[in-house]
Amino acid sequence: MVESVATDRYTPRKPGNVLPTKLRGGVMAAKLRLLSASTGLVAALVSAVIVGWQSSPSDGAAAGPLQLDVTDLPMTNVSTTIKWPVIETTDPSPFDPCNDIPFDAIQRIGLAFTPPEPEDSLRCHYDAGNYQMAVEAFVWRTYEQTIPADAVELDIDGHRAAQYWIMKPTDWNDRWWVTCMIAFKTSYGVIQQSLFYSPIHSPERPDCLQINLQRAHELAPYYKF
Which UniProt keywords apply (predicted)? Predict the structure, then answer.
């Protein structure tokens, strides 16, 4: 006798290919870990390739000497504020006062109270005791660029020159230096001869313009124009 089994209409059936909830969660976590590991491996490989490419010279560089592109060459047709001879000259030191003017000539006109002292560039400092003098040659500036608008031009032993004040003797600057200048035009630029003194240390106040002009006449035969 065959017994009939009543169908359970209240307990839902589970499909054969559907996993329980806990098992499905474990499978998903395993897939995520596998994906993460694969991503890390790819990133490591890419980094290794980049580092190797940066550290090893290229085939083109190893094949021969470095080629200089014309765009790397310095431009020569641009203006600049760098000091450089404004007149074509092959001698960067056409006149060095401390070396080119004989010491006995300096001593004879009273500029050797202390020995002549070379200073920056082509400048020489002379000490007369109650006043100081400096003679300097410039190869990067012209005579016309040097003299101010109020300069008085004159001829000194056949050479074009100009005389002017740098700091006039006035009441407000009696504690500072009084300074006057003579500039000579040269083939390479300009020679500047300055005379200066402190009213505190030289109360007799030398006549700046007159003494500087006298020294210019005495030194001009030794200057190189």
Answer: Membrane, Transmembrane, Transmembrane helix
